[in-house]
Amino acid sequence: MRDLKHLIYFEDLLQTANNELIQKAKEKGGIAVAYTCENVPEPLLNLGKCFSIRLHAPQTGSMDIAAFYMTNLLCEPSRALLERAIEGGFNFADCVITPDGCTMMNRAVENMELLKTMGKDNPNFFHEYMEIAFKNTPADVDLSVLQCTNHILTPLHEKYGVDISDKAIRKAVEKHNKMVRVIREIGEFRKGDKPRITGYEFHVLCLATYVCPADLVMKKLEETLEELKTREPDDKPWRCKVLLVGSEVDDSGLIKLIEEQGAMVAADRFCFGSLPGRTEIVLNDEEDALTQVCRHYIEHCQCPRMMNQEKVYGRKQYVADLAKEYDVDGIIYQQVKFCDPWAYERVLGSHMLQEDYGYPVLSVDRPYNIASSSGQMRTRVQAFVESIEIKRIQKGGK
Fold it and tell me: What is the pLDDT of residues 95-110, one digit of tens each?
């Protein structure tokens, strides 16, 4: 296929945590609200002049300094973020908000605060730690409202004078939904026998909406959407199509590696993905916007930290439904090394999707930066693709 006009631009944005759009937004007086988890309601971080930035550490190398404070037994993303913070890579942030969805990530941010890695020249800088729900009951919605009020809205208002009214929240949700609709519509072009966009290309675009000010990427996203409507797909089919499931993927190199083996990543059920991370928030006029936003995040959450039985088994059904919708040939369950929540989820999910739903499943753990161990992953994916092809031949397919 012809290269997407803006792909190189988006790829360049992902090469550094403090990208040019963050710098541009800061120059215009924007307030950079950094966060570390998909369980934080994103629209609440984009009120007024605020813009949300989910922290990531591209091109991570040595994590020796972070290991000194956190040991090598904690997950690589948490150590990579601490290492980058110590290096000064997150100095653009005006505050950091993190939930207790993951103890390791929480510990990383605690170290950032203790070491004073950010906010040295900003008297209004603050760290906030949120308690988040384990279930999706009305009491958990109330908890979320309280936590968002105490740890997002109130400090933003007191420190930076941000408008936190119901009207302001609704406006932020409207902007959020506009971005979501564009990304989801772009993602629809991954479907069919001849997709008009690759999984790698889509991941680059989607990831940019998390780590860049959303307002500043919208124009190029909209132009890309229009470009895809007339883009001619390749005649050469993929060897197979897969659904990638698991912990956070903020390294597009993983998607590229999988697709280089002939397996198109047709759907993205992982942190930093669009399913369900980019789901429109529908508000009514009868109830306050904050409660509705909190309820949306709890009801749509597919994070393995949600532990009631409805959520535990619902996550497997959600993956099976996506596999059917995107017509994939197999599922790859991946987990970043030492990620405890997804370690348990990967074992149960990979077993159930294979035994109960009949999908071929590849279950792997991986490094945060795939370049550090690409050979092993490439071999695993090659073998998985070949096994899918063999089963297809055995069933009389091509």
Answer: 999 998 788 999 999 9
Q: List the domain boundaries for the chain.
A: 234-394
8 A C-beta contact, residue 189 and residue 182: no
Please state whether the predicted TM-score (pTM) of the whole model is above 0.85: yes
Residue 103, Ramachandran bin (φ over 0: left; ψ between -120 and 50: alpha; else beta): alpha
Where b means 16+ CB within 10 Å and e means fewer, 66-89 reads beebbeeebbbbbbbbbbbbbeeb
Where does the chain have alpha helices with state H?
7-13, 20-27, 64-70, 76-87, 103-114, 138-148, 154-160, 166-187, 199-211, 214-229, 252-260, 289-300, 309-325, 340-355, 374-394
What are 57-77's pLDDT values in tens digits?
999 999 999 999 998 888 999
Please report the sign of the dihedral spanned by the C-alpha atoms of residue 118, residue 123, residue 125, residue 130: positive
Fold of 234-394: Rossmann fold (3.40.50)
